[in-house]
Amino acid sequence: MGLYKLQVQEDDQSWHDVTSAEAKVLTFDNEDVARRKLEELYPVWVQLERYQSGPKRTRVVAIWGNDDDWPKK
After folding, report:
1. pTM of the model as a whole
2. What is the 3-state secondary structure (H, E, C) of 4-71?
3. d(CA 59, CA 11)
4. Where is 73: in which H helix or E strand?
């Protein structure tokens, strides 16, 4: 089971997490749900990325919940 968050890139090339109205990072248990939310929030950027080969402005990032989630060696 994974955990995913959304990020967008600003004009200055810095990436930041997408947050809720309560200023909390939006996280999702399912990558497909995360991608649908990204498209809902940033429809123009997502559509442009599908048809242009230029740099990306949006992304879904897989994250670990905490150190206990790391695979055991």
Report:
1. 0.76
2. EEEEEECCCCCEEECECCCCCECEECCHHHHHHHHHHHCHHHHHHHHHCCCCCCEEEEEECCCHHHCC
3. 15
4. none
Cβ contact 17:25 at 8 Å: yes
Helix (H, G, I), strand (E, B) or coil at 3: strand
* Residue listed under structure tokens 């150190």: 67
**How do 58-63 and 15-17 pair as beta strands?**
unpaired
Q: Are 4 and 61 in contact (CB under 8 A)?
A: yes
pLDDT digits (tens, 9 = 90+) for 38-58: 999 999 888 888 787 667 899
What tokens appear for 25 in the block? 């990072």
